[in-house]
Amino acid sequence: PVDVADKVVDTNLLPEAYRGQIRDFIRQHQISKGFDYARDEERRRNAKKLPCFASFPQDNAMLYEKANISGMMSKILEFNQEMTKDLVMSVKDTNDIQELTNTLMKTSYYHATKLSKQAANIMSQKLSKWPIAKLFVVVDLLRVVMTHPYAHLFADSVTCVIETYVSMFVATSKDDSGLSTKQKRILTILTLRLLSNMFATVDMCKSILSSTTFHPAILNILSHNLRHSTDKTLRQTAGTCLLNFVYVLCVCVCMFVCS
Q: Within a 10 A sphere around the Cβ of 155, how many other Cβ atoms?
């Protein structure tokens, strides 16, 4: 019941109050077929005593790779029609972004592809500067880009969207974004997943470690969400990013000591 309640609430972005109600409803109405609820609760209590999250990997960065890339492209084309003259993409720009999404859909672990600098320039000069209400799809596309070996080409775009997020939600206590609570939560989750995926490639890790802006921005966003009082998904996603950050730092330290 606990897992089902968590999945329903997190998938449908329901208020936290529903979590306990769904769990209790399942316990009251489900016909138990040999399932020992008392033993399951005991297992969960024991799991909380573990020194770390049992599901977290110990040997590499944890990534968010699943994506509906064609859906992202459709939403980008839709939003592009609403942009002002300085941010709207031309036909050529649109074709370059379409080529980017096609490449990402075709990329697998069994063959190599390249991402174009033209697409990276469009992302940094236009898409990453879209209004905050339309930025979620750009952040989500960058999340997928970060898992590609040529992710470092898009470092400027990542910097831009991170700075926008920090200025809107972290650096100030006043929320002038105009986003609903649901929209803000979605953007926050996608931003945290983008930060987690930034540690997927060696070149991007080098960009992060050598940058003077990435470190404070990442840590500000993480500290803002690691202590979230009610949203477990935000805390877990921020924890994943922190795990990746620490993992990369440890690897770098080990390489330095060995050299």
A: 19
Instruction: Give the C-alpha separation, 149 to 87, whole Å.
Output: 28
Query: Is 148 within 8 Å of 116 (Cβ atoms)?
Result: no
pLDDT digits (tens, 9 = 90+) for 46-102: 666 655 544 444 556 788 888 899 999 999 999 999 999 999 999 999 999 999 999
Task: Tell me the sheet residues that pair with 111.
Answer: 108
219-228: Cβ within 8 A, 24+ apart:
220/166, 220/170, 220/171, 221/162, 221/165, 221/166, 221/170, 221/191, 221/192, 221/195, 222/192, 222/195, 224/169, 224/170, 225/188, 225/192
Instruction: List pLDDT tens digits, range 20-32.
Output: 888 877 776 654 5
Work out the angle between the directed axes of helices 214-226 and 202-210 (0-180°, nearest 10). Answer: 100
Q: Choose among 176, 169, 157: nearest CA to 225.
A: 169
Nearest CA-CA partner of 210 in 249, 170, 242, 172:
249
Calpha distance 202→103 (Å, rounded) = 20
Query: Structure pTM?
Result: 0.73
Phi, psi of 185, rounded to the nearest 5 degrees: -65, -45
CB 231 within 8 A of CB 186: no
In 3-state terms, the chain is what percent helix, strand and coil (to 5)? Answer: 70, 0, 30
Distance between CA atoms of residues 112 and 214, nearest Å: 28
Q: How far apart are CA 243 and CA 139, in angstroms?
A: 21
Please return the burial class of 227, using the count of CB atoms within 10 Å of its CB with bins 0-12, 13-18 and 19+.
exposed
